[in-house]
Hints:
This protein is 40% helix and 18% strand. It has helices at 2-21, 44-63, 86-96, 107-120, 147-159, 175-187, 208-214, 226-235, 281-291, 298-319, 330-341; strands spanning 30-37, 71-78, 100-104, 124-126, 140-142, 165-171, 193-199, 219-222, 244-247, 266-271, 347-348, 356-359, 365-366, 370-375. Helix 2 (44-63) packs parallel to helix 10, helix 5 crosses helix 6 (175-187) and helix 10 packs across helix 11 (330-341). It is elongated.
Amino acid sequence: xxxxxxxxxxxxxxxxxxxxxxxCKKSExxxxxxxxGPLTGSAAVYGKGVxxxxxxxxxxINANGGLNGIKLELKVMDDVNDPTKVATNYAALVDWGMxxxxxxxxxxPALEFKNLSKNDNIFFMTPSASADAVRAESNGYQMCFAxxxxxxxxxxxxxxxGLTKIGVFYQSDIDYSQGIFTEFKANLNDTITVVEAxxxxxxxxDFTTQVSSLxxxxxxxMPIYYSEASLFMTQAKAEAGIKTxxxxxxxxxxxxxxxxxxxxxAITMLxxxxxxxxxxxxxxxxxxxxxxxxxxxxxxxxxxxxxYAIVGALKAAIADGKTVDANTSASDMCEILKGQLNxxxxxxxxxxxxxxxxxxxxxxxxxxxxxxxxxxxAAN
Length: 380
């Protein structure tokens, strides 16, 4: 009897522990999506846009029945755009039970996340980490254009403008800027003269010298981030010889740090998201109603598409006879998603590109590149 009573008490104690700490099983029967991104710091406008839009997608999908009745759950951790913080974030997400991931928001953290997730075979689809090397492992995918794709697309656009001379302003010590510029230059018509001006992390406090070097270039290509672009444009306001700035996805967020009406030049950018496009209007309306306009950008739109694309691919796998539920391991989930995306899966209804997204056999995204006019040139 004493042994039976002791056994009964032990069972009750274990049950009490399970109830109190949810340690005996998943606290919720959800599919868990992890994300590391800059919620604070200089790149926070990107991270907040991604976190907001991803959560909005999760909320919408859950409101419509989830993944065949299974709800989604999103956990976002702040990496401050610092790759040294990624390992801690990654470990916490794995401990939480992450089954699939949006990786990271920016490139340098993504390269660290890629190495960590490879060992655990956790599928990730980054909305915005654009370096080609992010896709070096078979578990990693991109919703954004890779740097090489951006460089080629930008060169093709410039080749069609009939220009004979352009300026290029880039950051030489980061993969993002240097990678885009290398591909851009390799694909630019050799009839176009290129005037180059560069900077590094240590020299980005003042661009007086670079403005002087490029002041006679009517068209300047800027494969850089918005904070540095803002400083250059501000310092070059009086240069009448400069007519147009053209950048890539790094210019997204420029309006958050610069009053564009104070810049006399036209500002355009290569993008996969235009807020006034027909396929983006509902997303924009819903996002701004919930979060305002300060963090509305293509990074968030891409994250929104990531969530829907992952869920769509999992639904397709279920239709093909695969088992996907809250207890599916991260490694099994990865193999299921790879089988879909490498097998020709098409995500329709995207708010980026023109509405349809596919992936190449190497895992790079395949969709339409767009040109977005941030502002027209001021009238003379």
